[in-house]
Amino acid sequence: MNLITNRAKGTQDVLPKDSFKRSFVEKLLFDIAKTYGFGQIRTPVFEHTELFNKSVGDTTDVVQKEMYTFKDKGDRSITLRPEGTTPVVRAMLENGLHNNALPIKLSYLMSCYRYENPQAGRYREFNQFGAEIFGSEDPAADAELIFMVHDMFNRLGIKGLTLEINSIGCPKCKEKYYLKLQEYLESKKADLCPNCVDRLSRTPMRVLDCKSPICAGITKDAPVILDFLCKECSDHFEQVKSYLSQMQVLFKINPRIVRGLDYYTKTVFEFISTEIGAQGALGGGGRYDGLVKMIGGVDMPAIGVGLGVERIMLILEKQQIPLLEPEKCTIYIAGLGYEAREMALKLACIARQYSINAQCDIVGRGLKAQMKFADKIEAAFSIVIGE
Ligand code: AMP
To answer: Which of the residues in the chain have pLDDT under 70?
Structure first.
């Protein structure tokens, strides 16, 4: 075939044989979130670049290497959203939702864009289901959000996921920890990748997130943030763990989870699968108590999560979890002769008013070919109209 061009690298076409599965999953996620009190929010695909630079962090991979940033015709720097939380915070503040009764709970489904090296489970355009809770610093909010995600994976029938949690403390804890971590990393500086050398002085914790195997080897024995938490952050983490245990949610403490974006504080978590290859994080999130103030000047604690829809689809397929396929056609109305075909179209339209999936010939086939087609689309019933 002589196509002008193929789809862009790292993007996907979702065909009808798969799209019904996606719709099912997305609807289930929204339905569950609704029972936890989440309303839906939608934000634009692109934002002014400065929104992401500072909040996501200018030493992160996302900002340094992965953002789709361009000048529009008005010479403004525009970025396709690489993640969902920051745009939702902006929209929440810009529309005055922060004045509503707290907590504010917002859920969303959005496409995100990162210029990464595509592989299984990693795309340049991907979709995130996200949920954010604004206005509570209580550990109960952390526990409720984590429990909701646990509930979502359970109700999708996905098995064998590990929930890993950590606390990366508040700016006070980080200050103390950074000194120790910098001291450790300085002694290994000669072997770190150039990016990590650059990160060392400003955000040394980013080095723990580096994908280079050499850096990962170096940081294996690095000091961990959990040993540097202040009393408040430590108590908060204990309470989150206690809530999760009470709710019978199994978790593993992984002191190396730092998350890829800079705005996180205190609790961070990831749901990991070992069944879908190297990109095993099905979802992750954490608390970001300083972000709302950074974006809009309003002091408001918050916590959120993002789930990768494509990775959820991969694991559903891997675990062969059946999703009910919608009936292709309930009634096929075949017509013999012009008048009958006119009647068939009219009847099909009436049936659709009653939410019945009804099809008739719109290609100009003869009766025999129409019946063959009805067979192909697996019509449950056929009606033949004719003299
Ligand atoms: P993050 O906040 O970067 O951890 O992203 C949240 C979730 O989105 C991850 O746990 C993945 O499931 C998914 N995700 C992130 N990046 C990609 C990508 N490039 N392609 C597909 N899914 C992704």
So the answer is: none
Beta strands in 252-321 (DSSP E): 252-253, 265-272, 281-287, 302-308
H/E stretch holding 133: strand 125-134
pLDDT of residue 125: 98
| Burial status of residue 220 (CB atoms within 10 A of its CB: 0-12, 13-18, 19 or more) | exposed
Give the closest residue (by CA) to ligand 1 atom 12.
Answer: 308
Block residue for tokens 């050398």: 197
pLDDT on residue 256:
87
Residue 351 CA to residue 353 CA, distance in Å, equals: 5
Ligand 1 atom 11: residue of nearest CA: 308
Tell me the chain's radius of gyration from C-alpha atoms: 26
Alpha helices in the chain (DSSP H): 16-35, 50-56, 61, 85-94, 139-156, 171-186, 194-202, 213-218, 231-246, 291-296, 309-318, 338-353, 367-376
Look at residue 304 and give its three-state secondary structure: strand
Q: Ligand 1: which of 14, 85, 115, 279 to mutate, most ligand atoms within 8 Å of CB?
A: 279
